[in-house]
Amino acid sequence: MDFQESYAGLSDGDLLRPGVTGTWSVRDIIAHVTWWEEEALTHLPLVLAGGRPPRYSVTHGGIDAFNAKMTEQRKPWSLAQVLTQQDEVHRRLVAFVQGAPESSPAARHVRSLPQARARHTHLAGVARCNW
Length: 131
Fold this sequence. Notes:
single chain; 131 residues; globular
């Protein structure tokens, strides 16, 4: 099941209802996946060029701290804003992944992005099962 299919057909109320995982709603999971896809778009060009992005422990105090910061930053966003951003960012990421050179040693990292996204699909699907 595709990530977007996992929440397709849910009402706005279902997408906004907290409790899918902890206090997060499906909307929060969508925002989470989107900001990590944004991070991928930021850092993958460097990775493909053989570089290493800065460590989140150095730049943000760790991944949990980064997630907390981004959660707060996106909290005021409407559901429509989150969905629009998700569509735009994912489209850009797919184009980037499809254009990544096969010969690059870092290409395997680029090609693994769909699996990383799929790990979150089950969380959005949990909401469907709970309602």
